[in-house]
Design goal:
This protein is mainly α and 114 residues long. It folds into 2 domains: 34 residues; 79 residues, NusB-like (N-utilizing Substance Protein B Homolog, Chain A, Orthogonal Bundle), CATH 1.10.940.10. 75% of the residues lie in helices and 0% in strands. The longest helix is centred in the N-terminal third of the chain and has 16 residues. It is globular.
Length: 114
């Protein structure tokens, strides 16, 4: 199952994960998957120049998790913090342009929702 692979990969990156970190990873992955269709609709509306299927996989999934945190999580994250975290993840795991790209997509979404 894709969720299990995502969780295992995240836990592998954080070998010293605390119990609360593991819980958060599960919540983030499951919540993002649960709201995937609505999240993808929001991303599509805010990224008219790029089809979601053409986005780099890493960038797309980082944006999806940030959108979940901002709009769908029970304990929503403030947009500025979620975007900052997403950009840092994109810089670490994406391409040289991923940080700017993720920032642009999420920034457009926040403006669109305001």
């Amino acid at each position: 199952m894709q969720e299990t692979l995502a969780i295992d990969t995240a836990l592998e990156e954080t070998k010293s994960a605390k119990k609360q970190d593991v819980s958060f990873i599960h919540l983030l992955v499951h919540g993002t998957r649960e709201h995937l269709e609505a999240i993808d609709r929001q991303i599509t509306q805010s990224s008219r120049d790029w089809k979601i299927s053409r986005m780099a996989t890493v960038d797309r999934n980082i944006v999806r998790m940030a959108v979940y945190e901002i709009f769908f999580a029970k304990e929503k994250q403030t947009p500025k913090i979620a975007i900052n975290e997403a950009v840092e993840l994109a810089k670490k795991f994406g391409t040289d342009d991923s940080g700017r790209y993720v920032n642009g997509i999420l920034g457009a979404m926040i403006k669109h929702e305001s």
